[in-house]
Amino acid sequence: MSGILDGRRVLVTGVLLESSIAFHAARLAQEQGAEVMLTAFPRPSLTELVARKLPRPAKVIELDVTNDEHLAALEDAVRAELGGLDGVVHSIGFAPQDALGGNFLNTPFESVATALHVSAYSLKSLTTACLPLMPEEGGAVVGLTFDAQFAWPQYDWMGPAKAALEATSRYLARDLGGRNIRCNLVSAGPLRSMAAKSIPGFADLEGVWKQRSPLEWDLADPEPAGRGVVALLSDWFPKTTGEIVHVDGGLHAIGA
To answer: Is 162 a catalytic residue?
Structure first.
């Protein structure tokens, strides 16, 4: 039986551990027929170890999305491995420790700028670096966010960074629609991932989801979010762009 990504070539960023949403997006993409290539930073060797757990081998290249030389070299590296790209998964976010954990009012701009550069602007820089690899018939860019409608405990400057990411996705959707390139985001609920461990007090959100999520939410299961990513990469959403698909058990729809 054919998969929904048969014949597609997909670049996946952000595979750090087997618990990463990006890992499950890569795994599911392969299972649905895609050829997959991974990027990693700052430890490609760690991603190479995790990649061995994928159904099929996937080449890993180093990519710092704040490094112009890395971005300039991306086209040749991907073309040599895959020939081109039909989809890109942006699963990249970072904020210095002084931008998190209740320090919102005291965070220096240098740390805020780092959070915005890595977590939001990189969606634009990664996408434009990949544009020459996209075929005339178009493609899909899918990023990952954490609902920026609200101010979350301890999340601090990652909140405005995610809001900037969401706005960036909408503007990319506007500017790339003429090339039939769709840009969408998956807003996932909290997961016990590497990203969550780096945010002080992030575990406090567990109780929020247990109390308010209409559907039972499993903090140890990244697969639902990975499925959302793969669906948006596919032709099953041919006229959807600039959208944020919530894969959070429905909590975003519940007031109290």
So the answer is: yes
